[in-house]
Write a structure and sequence with these properties.
Keywords: Protein biosynthesis. It comes from Candidatus Curtissbacteria bacterium RIFCSPLOWO2_12_FULL_38_9. Residues 17-179 form the Ribosome recycling factor domain. The structure is a single chain. Helices cover 59% and strands 16% of the residues. The protein has helices at 3-22, 48-51, 72-82, 104-142, 147-180, and strands at 38-41, 44-47, 52-58, 61-66, 88-91, 94-98. The strands form two sheets. A four-stranded antiparallel beta sheet has the order 3-4-6-5. A two-stranded antiparallel ribbon has the order 1-2. Strand 1 (38-41) and strand 2 form a beta hairpin. The longest helix has 39 residues, at 104-142. The protein is elongated.
Length: 182
């Protein structure tokens, strides 16, 4: 395992974190709130984003325009079944979802959920660091690298670890600000 392999893994962790944080509701309309919801259509499970166009014409409204109008009720059923706290309504040939304002209690629940997600990703970053340190230790014991190289690698991985933990913290602060926004 090389330091560039580690960096690639850490980049993937940050991408995954941002995707998970995007699915936490902030009181603002966002296509990511519904895009990955599974819907039973055409005898299989498809995501909303595969079945139509998702737009946010207003800060608190999501519109879904299915490409096939015959599956309007399937999409509404999928959103209801997903139990994400959104009420989808058929409005002609489109589905309209009005995002209700968050209560302070609900905001706190989302912030608590977000902190759990952040911790999960911090642990993942630590595990990647640990795996790399074990790899370096094995290389040192087998004589593939010198003691100086081992120390340099340890220092490099710690620097990377600190950078990515900071990136997680920044993403969390931004999301918390969005959640506290009224």
């Amino acid at each position: 395992m090389t330091i560039s392999d580690v960096q690639t893994k850490l980049d993937a962790v940050i991408v995954h974190l941002k995707a998970e944080l995007a699915q936490i509701r902030t009181g603002r309309a966002s296509a990511s709130l519904v895009s990955d919801i599974e819907v039973d259509a055409y005898d299989s499970k498809l995501m909303v984003k595969e079945l139509g166009q998702i737009t946010t014409p207003e800060p608190n409204v999501i519109l879904i325009s299915p490409w096939d109008k015959s599956i309007l009720t399937n999409i509404v059923g999928g959103i209801t079944k997903a139990n994400v706290g959104l009420n989808a309504v058929v409005d002609g040939d489109i589905i309209r979802i009005v995002i209700p304002p968050l209560t302070s209690e609900r905001r706190e629940q989302f912030i608590k959920q977000m902190h759990g997600i952040l911790e999960k990703f911090r642990v993942e970053v630590r595990q990647i660091r640990h795996q790399y340190l074990e790899s370096v230790k094995t290389d040192r014991q087998s004589g593939r690298i010198s003691e100086d190289d081992e120390e340099r690698e340890k220092h490099e991985i710690q620097k990377l670890h600190d950078e990515y933990i900071e990136a997680i913290e920044v993403a969390g602060k931004i999301k918390e600000e969005q959640l506290r926004e009224v």
